[in-house]
């Protein structure tokens, strides 16, 4: 049985096997150029695939190229993308996407850019069905696919344009070379005689001659018409070959040998073998000449003190070798630049530049945790919900490895932790499995375990505690075997499985992949259930299902998007998650999957549709900023936009100030046009952003931003508080668990008033605790009035204590007059729903706004299939994400938040009151800000509740600005 993420079980098939029996052990990457087989799940090709997008590569860079004017650098990677970079600024200009599949298909091994920088050619495992691997040609500035050649049985390993840009030479894993006419949609001008083994290198001289390196140990030279001039035996497995700028010399690098040869560019005679005494191990597969031809460079798998250097020789290779520290992994490309600089690509997924003195210029750090050699620290809880892992990171001058832990149930990431007792490490004792540690193959009871195709390598293994079988992580698949060594299932992966672990309850196989993700697979059938990506540097994270539903930390949703199969001869389609977050940001569905509620996932997919179906409704509008992108203001800013509809009309206009959504008082015309809105801003620097929705409200446009600085003196704010505490409900099923709500609301307002002296110009409070004041109509009226009174500079606090529920994945605060008569009660206008709260917060505008929710689930009304507090937590996360405001929430177990008291108050509010009294800050501090208060409550509430036999962990948003809220009150 075969299964895979996002596809129904049994709906995959092997459609592409191309075998090359040459191999080199990967020093950091997976060696796409040397594993010539492709695994595809073509039957499920139309299902969109959620992909991690960091703005950088998440896999090995296999090839780099630069245009003649050195404006653009392009990179091709095993992460199945090519990227175009502005060489001067290092800014990512464009991502080029081809058809991809789970497995090898889509991984790129070769890239070339035309001398004028207008065209980019890509090659590799580009076949989408059958033994077909075309070479793709893109227009650089637009990313548009212009055409494709072939397809070919072999994978293209090296691509290089001729100096005039009219020809493209391609060498292949099988040993052939083809010369293509770029101006005639890939008409083949010449097909050379094949090498007797694969070819990894070719280069044009300035006069059009061509040289080719063959893994059979020869170098071949061709004239301008592609006719063979001669060949020379040079040694074991020559790799890259490069003409000197004047065409008189050819540098030859070797895959496994620690030396370089220099041949004549005219007749291939050996001219020099540069001094290699500093290179003691590894190979120097990559070679390059400086622009003036006086300096020769080489690099590859050669390593010294955890760094992979470039070897540099002066005098055309005759000088003494000098080592230039470059990067942290195998170097996969060298390109000389003007002024003595040198660009390089590497298996560490980043590229960089050495300056004329051989020093590394500042470069982006690797965004992906490196899970290689981490299996001995990859532990999982019995239910698979807590995972402990270590990944290496490069800080620019040294490696570091630390242990981290993620809890799926609480969605919490802990870093720099000590090993947690009780978590299970992978095991390899008990069954007769051997050989996998050597990456050459796996033996069971002395017999080879079958693999999908020759060349796939095992990377990790774990045996079930009850010896019922084992799981094997390999180059592009995850496989489960029974106790007799028979395969139960295998699943195609987007990257290699570097560590695996079977949860002891038998539900999950957890794997750490080469793309930096942790993934949870169904242990029964291999179907992917969840994936987690944690950014190596800033610790943002995103947790997502293969259907595309996700939850993320602040800023983490920018790390995910959706790829889906394009129409034939079109570039791959990718949609950023921000354009669909209103639909697919669903923490509640993550929890449903953890609870094993697959029916809820299926219902959501049926109701919403996948990304392709959503986008089938048409494209969103395009928004252009017409007002200045940088502006100074005295408090008013006129935002001017042009909205251009696509083929699906124009819907709601969404405006944001510092990430918080505010009400748009104007509507874009259905046919598009210019939109103007005047915004009132408080003192300081602000980011004003705008997006326009498609007419049906499902897909957002691009976002435009303006930075506005208000330079007027800040007036003293007014503190405006609306506190609602409901201890009495008309519906008997809501009468338990809220006896402290009234006291909590009353005391909180008293404490805020006491700390306001000298901090605020005035204090404006409304306390709603009586039955007559806690109906939905009265609460809504007070919210509307609060909106009318509030100014941009004011501090606004809304406190809600009582019952909260989330039967539909959205938060509902239950008013006193609510009567439950079925789930339709939540679909009508009977609660202070999330939609109402969102609208109130939008209307309040941006600024210092705080929402505090001290609510619990009664546990009797509208029973859910799992813990109601978990549903409420997920809904509050959605509310936090949707509003961009600072929100604090109790997030209590059922019936506990307000029933178990402390000092006459609910536990959560009791902790708030302690913090406001001064415990949230040091004795030397008088001012208490929201962050300090939230941090104190986060520590204090678990401490108070553990004494009562359970643990409550409060929630706080990472959105919204921090600000002082009160002063120490004795």
From TrEMBL:
InterPro entries, per the entry: Caspase-like_dom_sf, Ig-like_fold, Pept_C14_caspase, Quinoprotein_ADH-like_sf, WD40/YVTN_repeat-like_dom_sf, WD40_repeat_CS, WD40_rpt
Q: What is this protein called?
A: Peptidase C14 caspase domain-containing protein
Q: Which UniProt keywords apply?
A: Repeat, WD repeat
Q: Which organism is it from?
A: Pseudorhodoferax aquiterrae
* Classification of source organism: Bacteria, Pseudomonadati, Pseudomonadota, Betaproteobacteria, Burkholderiales
Keyword match Repeat: yes
Q: Where are the WD repeats?
A: 54-95
Asked whether the UniProt record includes Metal-binding among its keywords, one would answer no
List, for all copies, the residue spans of the domain called Peptidase C14 caspase.
Answer: 721-958
């Amino acid at each position: 049985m075969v299964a895979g993420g996002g596809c129904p079980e049994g709906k995959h098939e092997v459609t592409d096997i191309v075998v090359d029996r040459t191999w080199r052990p990967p020093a950091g990457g997976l060696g796409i150029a040397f594993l010539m087989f492709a695994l595809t799940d073509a039957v499920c090709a139309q299902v969109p695939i959620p992909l991690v997008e960091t703005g950088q590569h998440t896999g090995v860079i296999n090839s780099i190229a630069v245009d003649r004017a050195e404006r653009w650098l392009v990179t091709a990677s095993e992460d199945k993308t090519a990227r175009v970079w502005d060489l001067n600024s290092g800014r990512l200009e464009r991502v080029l996407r081809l058809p991809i599949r789970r497995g090898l298909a889509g991984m790129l091994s070769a890239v070339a850019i035309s001398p004028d920088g207008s065209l980019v050619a890509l090659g590799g495992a580009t076949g989408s069905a059958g033994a077909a691997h075309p070479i793709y040609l893109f227009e650089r500035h637009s990313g548009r696919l212009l055409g494709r050649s072939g397809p070919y049985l072999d994978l293209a390993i090296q691509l290089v344009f001729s100096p005039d840009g009219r020809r493209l030479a391609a060498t292949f894993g099988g040993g052939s070379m083809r010369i293509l006419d770029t101006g005639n949609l890939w008409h083949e001008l010449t097909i050379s005689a094949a090498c007797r083994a694969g070819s990894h290198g070719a280069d044009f001289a300035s006069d059009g001659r061509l040289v080719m390196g063959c893994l059979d140990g020869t170098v071949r030279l061709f004239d301008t018409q592609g006719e063979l001039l001669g060949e020379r035996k040079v040694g074991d497995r020559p790799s890259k070959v490069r003409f000197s700028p004047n065409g008189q010399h050819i540098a030859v690098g070797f895959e496994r040998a620690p030396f370089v040869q220099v041949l004549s560019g005219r007749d291939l005679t050996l001219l020099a073998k540069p001094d290699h005494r500093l290179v003691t191990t590894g190979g120097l597969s990559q070679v390059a000449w400086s622009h003036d031809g006086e300096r020769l460079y080489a690099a590859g798998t050669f390593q010294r003190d955890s760094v992979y250097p470039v070897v540099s020789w002066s005098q055309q290779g005759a000088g003494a070798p000098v080592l230039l520290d470059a990067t942290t992994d195998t170097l996969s490309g060298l390109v000389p630049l003007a002024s003595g600089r040198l660009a390089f690509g590497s298996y560490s997924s980043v590229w960089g530049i050495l300056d004329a003195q051989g020093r590394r210029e500042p470069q982006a750090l690797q965004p992906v945790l490196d899970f290689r050699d981490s299996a001995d620290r990859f532990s999982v809880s019995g239910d698979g919900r807590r995972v402990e892992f270590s990944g290496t990171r490069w800080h620019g001058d040294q490696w570091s490895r630390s242990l981290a832990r993620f809890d799926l149930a609480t969605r919490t990431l802990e870093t720099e932790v000590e090993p947690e007792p009780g978590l299970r490490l992978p095991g390899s004792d008990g069954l007769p499995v051997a050989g996998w540690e050597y990456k050459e193959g796996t033996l069971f009871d002395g017999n080879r375990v079958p693999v999908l195709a020759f060349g796939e390598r095992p990377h990790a293994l774990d045996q079930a505690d009850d010896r019922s079988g084992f799981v094997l992580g390999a180059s592009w698949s995850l496989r489960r075997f029974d106790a007799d060594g028979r395969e139960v299932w295998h699943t195609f992966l987007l990257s290699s499985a570097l560590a695996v672990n079977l949860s002891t309850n038998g539900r999950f196989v957890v794997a750490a992949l080469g793309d930096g993700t942790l993934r949870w697979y169904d242990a029964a059938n291999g179907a992917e259930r969840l994936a987690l990506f944690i950014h190596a540097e800033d610790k943002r994270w995103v947790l997502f299902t293969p259907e595309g539903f996700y939850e993320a930390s602040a800023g983490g949703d920018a790390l995910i998007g959706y790829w889906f199969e394009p129409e034939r001869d079109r570039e791959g389609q990718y949609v950023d998650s921000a354009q669909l977050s209103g639909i697919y940001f669903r923490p509640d569905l993550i929890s449903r999957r953890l609870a094993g509620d697959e029916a809820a996932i299926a219902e959501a997919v049926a109701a919403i549709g996948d990304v392709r179906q959503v986008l089938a409704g048409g494209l969103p509008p395009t928004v252009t900023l017409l007002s200045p992108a940088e502006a100074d203001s005295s408090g008013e800013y006129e935002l001017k936009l042009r909205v251009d509809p696509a083929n699906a009309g124009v819907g709601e206009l969404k405006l944001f100030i510092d990430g918080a959504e505010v009400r748009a008082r104007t509507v874009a015309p259905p046919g598009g046009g210019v939109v103007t809105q005047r915004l009132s801003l408080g003192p300081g620097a602000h980011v004003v952003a705008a997006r326009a929705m498609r007419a049906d409200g499902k897909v957002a446009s691009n976002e435009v931003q303006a930075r506005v600085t208000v330079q007027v003196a800040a007036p003293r704010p007014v503190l405006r508080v609306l506190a609602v505490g409901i201890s009495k409900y008309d519906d008997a099923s809501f009468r338990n668990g809220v006896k402290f709500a009234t006291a909590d609301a009353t005391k909180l307002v008293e404490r805020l008033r006491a700390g306001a002296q000298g901090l605020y110009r005035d204090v404006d409070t409304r306390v709603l605790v009586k039955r007559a004041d806690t109906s939905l109509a009265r609460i809504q009226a007070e919210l509307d009035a609060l909106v009318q009174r509030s100014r941009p500079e004011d501090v606004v606090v809304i406190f809600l204590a009582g019952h909260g529920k989330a039967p539909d994945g959205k938060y509902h605060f239950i008013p006193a007059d609510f009567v439950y008569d079925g789930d339709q009660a939540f679909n009508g206008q009977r609660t202070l729903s999330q939609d109402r709260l969102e609208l109130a917060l939008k209307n309040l505008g941006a600024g210092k706004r705080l929402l505090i929710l001290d609510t619990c689930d009664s546990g009797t009304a509208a029973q859910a299939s799992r813990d109601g507090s978990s549903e409420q937590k997920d809904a509050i996360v959605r509310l936090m994400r949707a509003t961009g405001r600072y929100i604090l929430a109790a997030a209590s177990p059922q019936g506990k938040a307000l029933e178990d008291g402390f000092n006459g108050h609910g536990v959560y509010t009791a902790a708030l009151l302690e913090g406001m009294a001064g415990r949230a800050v040091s004795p030397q501090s008088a001012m208490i800000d929201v962050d300090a208060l939230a941090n104190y409550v986060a520590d204090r509430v678990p401490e108070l509740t553990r004494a009562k036999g359970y643990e409550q962990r409060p929630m706080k948003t990472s959105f919204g600005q921090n600000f002082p809220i009160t002063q120490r009150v004795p």
